[in-house]
Amino acid sequence: MKKTFIAIVLSLFSLSFYAQITQDTLLVGYTTAPPFIVQEGELLEGINIWLWERTAADLNLNYKLVPMGFREMLDALKSGEIDVSINPLTVTSERSKVFEFTNSYYAAHSTIAISEATTFEKLTGFLKNFFNQDFLKGLAVLLFIIFWFGLLGWYFERKQNPEHFRNSGSGIWDGMWWSAVTLTTVGYGDKAPKTKMGKITALVLMFGGLLFISGLTASIASSLTVNQLSSSPEGFMAFKERKVGTIDNSGAMEYLHKHFFKDINGYSGVVAGLKDLKDGKINAFMYDEPILKYRIQEDKELMNLQVLPVKFDVQFYAFGISTKRAEIEKEVSQQILSITETQEWEVVLNEFGLKDI
Predict the structure, then answer these.
(1) What is the set of domains in the chain, with CATH numbers?
(2) CA distances (Å), 144 to each of 134, 137, 192, in order?
(3) Prior bond of 88 cis (ω within 30°)
(4) Which pLDDT value is given to residue 21?
(5) Taking all residues of the chain, what is their mean pLDDT, rounded to a whole number?
(6) What band does 296 get if pLDDT is binned at 50, 70 and 90?
(7) 127-to-74, 131, 132 alpha-carbon distances in Å
(8) Following DSSP, what letter does each residue of 17-50 receive, concatenated?
(9) Tens-digit pLDDT profile for residues 301-329
(10) Hey, is 218 helix, strand or coil?
(11) Residue 345 neighbours by CB under 8 Å, 6+ apart
């Protein structure tokens, strides 16, 4: 009887000890997000992996890494099924209502990835922008000026200067030629007015034409620039009416909704979105700049994609901590702050081609 009692006590003690160990072992969720979390087979590396391992070692934290999908990870963090998420989570007011954030360790902007246009597409786009309504209006005015002053020049010169301006219907063409040559300041000298009224017409044409040509050139250049900017994919708002993609439940998704983007496709991962972009299923993919650049540089299948020099919606990255384990947030935050102030942190960022903004 005594031995049985001792066995029961030992069993209860063992269960209690095991439960204590289990409770102290943090469940750490993650999903791949290069260059922050890079997974090749069973090998895990990346900026966040290094930062978490260093933090856990300094604080003597026991943990178990749990691979998950991004949406699943956020839901599990919210419900307390996992204790920590070491993904580069953007700090937002909505998320801070359902779980805790550590101190931010990195800041980056969102940006836009598009499929590179072919040479033919670039040429047709330029021609479309060039032959716009403003250009055609200017061309029509130019032709009218040439015709009107050519007609005046012929009228004043046809009788006293028939060798240059024939006194017939063909002489009108002589006037057109003289007017065009004078207006464009080419000045061949093959035709020139001799009469007083002809010379006055020439003076008005030369000085008025100089001003008109200058204004027309500036107007065409301005119009071409405006049309390029308005139709160019290098502006954030230019994609408002187009089909774009981003990651589900991400800070970028929230930002696009706030700015009234109408056609947004949500993806569970960056690669899936970039492949749809490559296949022409979406016009642009918008997400965090370092992640997009790393994916495109590392994946040969995505070489025809480019990241535009557009930055919007600065993102502050932090680890997420369940409210059920809020007691560790302060220690983890303090340790992250200490690590990110070291030279070693800058070296790690440089290894993956990043730097603090």
Answers:
(1) 2-107+317-351 (3.40.190.10), 115-123+235-312 (3.40.190.10), 125-231 (1.10.287.70)
(2) 16, 11, 20
(3) no
(4) 38
(5) 84
(6) very high
(7) 48, 6, 9
(8) HHHHHHHHEEEEEE--BTTTBEEETTEEESHHHH
(9) 898 899 998 899 898 999 999 999 999 99
(10) helix
(11) 51, 339
- What does the chain come to in residues? 357
Q: Which residues lie closer than 8 Å to 13 by C-beta, 6 or more apart?
A: none
Assess contact for 310 and 234: CB atoms under 8 A. yes
Residues paired with residue 265 on neighbouring β-strands, in sequence order? 245
Lowest mean pLDDT among 11-20, 216-225, 234-243, 301-310: 11-20
Residue 169 banded pLDDT, cuts 50, 70, 90 = confident
Beta strands in 91-215 (DSSP E): 100-101, 106-115
- Hunting for tokens 């690669």 — which residue is that? 271
Residue 221 burial (10 A CB sphere; 0-12, 13-18, 19+): exposed
Tokens, residue 225:
């620039």
Residues 250-255 have a mean pLDDT of 90
In this prediction, residues 228-256 reach a mean pLDDT of 79
At residue 46, φ and ψ (nearest 5 deg) are 130, 170
Q: Which H or E element spans position 155?
A: helix 133-157
Instruction: Convert 171-194 to b/e letters by CB count within 10 Å (16 or more is b).
Output: bbebbbbbbbbbbeeeeeeebbbe
Q: What is the pLDDT of residue 12?
A: 43
Whether 23 and 15 have beta carbons less than 8 Å apart is answered as no
Q: Residue 67, SS3?
A: strand
pTM of the model: 0.61
* Environment class of 249 (CB within 10 Å of its CB; exposed 0-12, middle 13-18, buried 19+): middle
What CA–CA distance (Å, rounded) separates 65 from 67? 7
**What pLDDT does 227 receive?**
53
